[in-house]
Amino acid sequence: MTKLNIFFQILPKQAARLICLPTRSNKPLQNQWLFSFLLISFYVVLFEVWRVASVDFARLSGVAAFVLICWQLRRKHSAHYFTCNWDLLIHFSIALDILLEALLIREHPRSFYLCAAAFGLVLFPYRFFKLREKHGHSH
Question: What global pTM score does this model have?
Answer without folding.
Answer: 0.72
